[in-house]
Amino acid sequence: MSTTDKQPGDASLFFRYASMFACPICTTPMQLVQGKSLVCARRHCFDMAKTGYISLLVRSPKSKYDKSLFKARNAVNAAGVFDPLLDRISEGMQERIVSQTGSIKMLDAGCGEGSHLSRILNRLAGQAPAIDWLGVGVDLSKEGIRLAVRENVQAIWCAADLARCPFADKQFDFVLSICSPSNYAEFGRMLADEGTVIKAVPASGYLRELRELLYRETARQDYSNERVVERFGRYFDLIDTERVTYKAAMDPLLLEQIVQMTPLAWGAPQELVREATAERFAEITFDFDIMYGKQPRRDQ
Question: Which of 6, 12, 109, 234 is deepest in the core (most CB within 10 A)?
Fold first, then answer.
């Protein structure tokens, strides 16, 4: 099945991969019933939305991530701003697969509106077409998942809590976390024995121009990801790190969308946010560290 065969509302992927799921309430196995509900051995039931995603949330989440933020991120992605990062992640995944045939499952944990995962899947399908690539996108926000399901790729989209991921143990060859919160204990539980966790985090130069404007002469003007990197290393064997740094040309609309999508604006005075939106930056810096981790060796 190609990455473009899946249509919104199609339950075939849920049927094919139902055994991958575990109930977020009791952790027992699940099965697809009547093509529309995932039901566990203890009869906890979660219904598919007509648009083709499923919510496995057990409580109503609270989040600052809203529809306008996700729409802005989707537009920024469509403009190609994240392409250098996503290209490198796709290449890193290809370098770490054993065979160019077979099936590979990847989880994008904190997928938002799905544009990162969709672009990675499309790149991989073009570069290694003999592999059956399955993407699974999970996010706490239903708003994000409702937008993600519109992406025309072979993917399963779920609204779920990263602290109670609705998947059985050792399901994924890759777990991706791209500039989003992480639950490393759950990542390790769901990762196959020879699988790889790939985490991309902002580096010191990320959105430097905006940071200097929004947080000038404050402690937040400078950024370090040392604590994030150190915490990743406590859970996984760090096998490689890469730096991806580039500048993206700006126009007024794209700049406004970048300001809308970044949590940087949440803690800044509103007058500075308005100033940042009106600023005529010719370019904005994008700077990331990519970490590759494996399950810890048992002899440690």
Answer: 109
R_g of the chain computed on alpha carbons? 19
Residue 218 gets which letter from DSSP? S
Half-sphere exposure of 281 (CA within 13 A, CB side): 24
In angstroms, the CA 262 to CA 37 distance is 35
- On the question of pLDDT at 12 being above 70, the answer is yes
Q: Please report which confidence band the pLDDT of residue 299 belongs to, taking 50, 70 and 90 as the band edges.
A: low
**DSSP labels, 164-193:** G--B-TT-EEEEEEESS---HHHHHHHEEE
List all residues 6 or more positions away from 267 whose beta carbon is below 8 Å from its beta carbon: 220
Judge contact between 274 and 177, C-beta under 8 A: no
CA distance linking residue 67 with residue 261, whole number of Å: 10
d(CA 64, CA 57): 17
Question: What is d(CA 40, CA 294) in angstroms, rounded to the nearest whole number?
Answer: 30
For range 31-44, the mean pLDDT: 94
Residue 3 has pLDDT above 70, yes or no: no
> Which of the residue ranges 66-80, 204-218, 282-296 has the most confident prediction, judged by mean pLDDT?
282-296
Q: What is the pLDDT of residues 121-131, one digit of tens each?
A: 999 999 999 99
* Cα distance between residue 132 and residue 234, in whole Å: 32
Most confident of 2-11, 93-102, 184-193: 184-193
CA-to-CA distance for 188 and 296, rounded, in angstroms?
9
Give Cα 147 to chain centroid, integer Å: 14
Q: 285-299 b/e with 16+ CB inside 10 Å = b?
A: bbbbbbbbbbbeeee
Are the CB atoms for 66 and 143 separated by under 8 Å?
A: yes
**CB within 8 Å of 151: residues ≥ 6 apart:** 114, 115, 117, 118
